[in-house]
Amino acid sequence: SSGINAEYGGACAAIVAREKHILELEFFEQESSDPKRLFERQAGRLKEEKQRSVLHRRIKKMDKVVTSQVQKVRERLGDVVTYQGRDYLDKMSRDTTEMLYWLQQERRQLALERGGMVMIDLPPIDPSSIV
What we know:
Elements: H1 2-32, H2 42-77, E1 82-83, E2 86-87, H3 88-113
Antiparallel strand pairs: 1-2
Helix pairs in contact: 1-2, 1-3
């Protein structure tokens, strides 16, 4: 029983840490999508790119930890670790791309509401088609 708890606990802790980094990246990308930032000096944009690289490196590092922990649960307990009803390894392979897609959709919607652009209907994203 304590072995089972340790396996699930390790996977949960790794997932929580990774999701924290994903949330940091999402907040960063929301902020960096502000067009006003393009009028900043070059140094500001270089700093932004450096911060983006740091966040992506942290996520990649956590990807390895999470994959290891989730695979332990799968191999030792025969269970699939899910997050909000979704296989976490599958979610992990697509979540950054999906987040950027939805942030783009939000920006388009805001521009449309301000009358700044014409919205075209895009087909819904199929997560299984993202590679």
